[in-house]
Amino acid sequence: MSLKDLPLFDAPGSGDSDDPESLKPKHWTVTELTHKIKGVLEPPFQNVWVQGEVSNYRPAASGHAYFSLKDAQANISAAAFGWGAKRAKFELKDGLQILCRGKVSVYAPRGNYQLVIDQIEPLGAGALQVAFEQLKARLQAEGLFDPKRKRTLPSYPKRVAVITSPSGAVIQDMLNILKRRAPHVSILLVPAVVQGDAACEQLIRGLEIVNRWDLADVIVLARGGGSMEDLWCFNDEGLARAIAQSKLPVISAVGHEVDFTIADFVADLRAPTPSAAAEIVSGHWVDSTRRLREFFERLKVAVVRDLTMRKNLLSHVTARVVSPRDRLREQAQRTDELFLRLERAIRVHFQRRSALVEQCVGKLDALSPLRVLERGYALVREANDQGQIIKSSRQLQPGQSLRITFHDGDREVQAK
Predict the structure, then answer these.
(1) What are φ and ψ of residue 269, in 5° steps?
(2) Rounded distance, CA 355 to CA 360, Å?
């Protein structure tokens, strides 16, 4: 259809030339014209793919996204309705080269046409990779990858919670390794799908359950290898934040050694494989067992050496030991001799002490005041409680009461 096909344009010579009204041009309102253009423009462009660069990106609070799609020579307005609510795998931003599918639509209030987009794919890199890099950059800027935030794994965990598929080979490999290396460690399997749309929710719920009830000392998120699409649930932002908020330390053991997910960067430790995670968890137990065996062997060698040395010493001493009976006889004879010597020493000591005592008694007897009184002397004292001794006649007063002590008794007298 061309513009001449529109009823607005009459073909030359049509109509009645004699009628003055027919000479006036036919007119439409702006709304009518816009609707006509809309009807002409939109049907041929209902499902088109357009490649270009995002420019003037403007996200709205409603979740819609408005931007321009341009190349070196042209520019077209575009709108992606509900883009923010679709949980898109990547974020739109200025300068991003995209390939999008949509339809051309005329926006009547402004009288311009725009591309209403249904599907967007980034060019140069897959949508998953772009989403991975964008989420990684945002979480890293928030500090979720900061080593200072990460928790230290317990050296000797007694309880290990493994969040993984119960039917996969991963859990069997981990159980075999842990039972062989640390059979006393308790293993709790928290079942969860590890691929698909429901995986993120189940993994997050598993983390919440283990943390809420304190069911383990360490948590292991485990999954075998696969494509980026298979491992995509471990790149979920909600799961990353759940790992960061976990009170218990988390080990991410997803895929093979070359596979990296957002969970690896947020977790407290990344294990290259699930089997490596089982070895890491049981590592200190294995080292302790090995050191214990080494100490046991060293102790056994030391004990054998000590027993050998003592045996040799005992043999040497035994050869020098005298018969106990002979030694007892010698000791009995020696005891008898010492007893006789002690008896003689005691007798001599008492004799010397007795002579000394007799000598002291004689001297004391000679010096005794009673002996002096027996020879006619007397002791004169005042006849009162003090009994002061009278040494001179000048101490006497006429009529003073006195007590005179003789060798055979006392008498009271008065001085004249």
Answers:
(1) -155, 140
(2) 9
Beta strands at 112-122 and 186-191: parallel, antiparallel or unpaired? unpaired
pTM of this prediction?
0.52
**pLDDT tens-digit profile, the chain (416 residues):** 444 454 544 444 444 455 555 555 677 888 888 888 888 888 889 889 998 888 899 888 888 899 999 888 899 999 998 887 665 667 788 888 888 999 999 888 888 889 999 888 877 556 677 778 888 999 999 999 999 999 999 999 999 999 999 998 999 999 999 999 999 999 999 999 999 889 999 999 999 999 999 999 999 999 998 877 788 899 999 999 999 999 999 999 998 888 899 999 999 999 999 999 999 999 999 999 889 999 999 999 999 999 999 999 988 887 777 777 877 888 888 898 999 999 999 999 999 999 998 888 888 877 777 777 777 777 888 888 777 887 787 888 888 888 888 778 888 888 88
- Domain count of the fold of the chain: 4
Does one domain contain both 81 and 4? no
Q: How far apart are CA 108 and CA 35, in angstroms?
A: 8
- Structural domain range at position 379: 374-414
**199 and 263 together in one domain:** yes
